[in-house]
Amino acid sequence: MFEEVVQDLIDQLGRFPGVGPKSAQRMALWLINQPDTTATEISRTIIDSKRKAKFCKICGNISEEEICSICSNPNRDRTLIAVVEDSKDLVAIEKTREFRGLYQVLGGSLNPIEGIYPEDLRIRDLVMRLGDGKVKEVIIATNPNIEGEATASYLARLIAPLGVKVSRIATGLPMGSDLEFADQMTLGKAFEARTEVKVEE
After folding, report:
1. How far is CA 44 from the centre of its chain?
2. Average per-residue pLDDT in the chain?
3. What per-residue confidence (pLDDT) applies to 98?
4. Measured between alpha carbons, how far is 75 from 134 in angstroms, rounded to an integer?
5. Tens digits of per-residue pLDDT, 37-78?
6. Half-sphere CA count of 11, side-chain side, radius 13 A
7. What are the backbone angles phi and psi of residue 129, rounded to the nearest 5°?
8. Residue 54 CB contacts under 8 Å (≥ 6 apart), including other chains
9. Number of Cβ atoms within 10 Å of the Cβ of 11
10. pLDDT tens digits for 125-137?
11. Phi, psi at residue 31, to the nearest 5°?
12. Is-contact 109 147, C-beta < 8 A?
């Protein structure tokens, strides 16, 4: 058992997603063995990032400015919007260099068990963006898991009546996986081979 001051650090580091008890313990012991300047730099960076990071007013992506660099780029195809769950999924897609449209970052996926409903996501923002008729296709790129599929189905039913083409990235990605962990080639091909979503009336 560690001293309380060390255990407190382990507990705080364990709050990070994907960090288990052993990883948190390794990180804590590493930090304690570093010079004070290292801990100061890390803590300053965390505080600065938290203070400066904003959510883009248009797409919901994390940005330093009110409008992110993708939404403000005049060379992006404004007739296409890819819908993703989180900014990390957007980054994974950008790395493929296969998609040149815009994005809508939902901020999660539908999960009634966890208390996440449509009003908790940026779905209303997406619908508002479709109102001017400029967007011709919405590509649903939510994760291929139960929550992602439920979100995709909900969005397809919501968007189809607006007269906008709705497509879903191809299922070359294994079920239950996250976009952020897909290799660039697989993710790029999933976008190329996307299929139109048919909504039954």
Report:
1. 25
2. 89
3. 86
4. 15
5. 999 999 999 999 999 999 999 999 999 999 999 999 999 999
6. 8
7. -70, -20
8. 62, 63, 64, 65, 66
9. 12
10. 999 999 989 999 9
11. -60, -45
12. yes
Specify the 3-state DSSP secondary structure of 167.
strand
Tokens of 150: 């439920």
Tokens encoding 189:
């091909």
pLDDT, tens only, 10-34: 999 999 999 999 999 999 999 999 9
Question: What letter represents residue 59's amino acid?
Answer: C
Residue 175 to residue 193: CA distance in whole angstroms: 17
User: CA torsion 116→117→119→122, rounded to 10°?
Assistant: 70
Dihedral sign computed on CA atoms, order 175, 180, 181, 185: positive
Amino acid found at 9: L
Residue 155 burial (CB count, 10 A): 25
Q: Do the strands 77-84 and 101-105 form a parallel or antiparallel pair, or are they unpaired?
A: parallel
- Residue-wise pLDDT for 73-86, tens only, equals 999 999 999 999 99
The amino acid that residue 25 corresponds to is: Q
- Is the distance from CB of 31 to CB of 75 less than 8 angstroms? no
Concatenating the DSSP letter of every residue in 112-140 gives GGGTB-GGGTTHHHHHHHTTTS---EEEE
Residues 11 and 19: beta-carbon distance below 8 Å: no
CA–CA dist 73, 76 (Å, integer): 6
Look up residue 109 and give its amino acid: S
The DSSP element (H or E) to which 32 belongs, if any, is helix 21-32
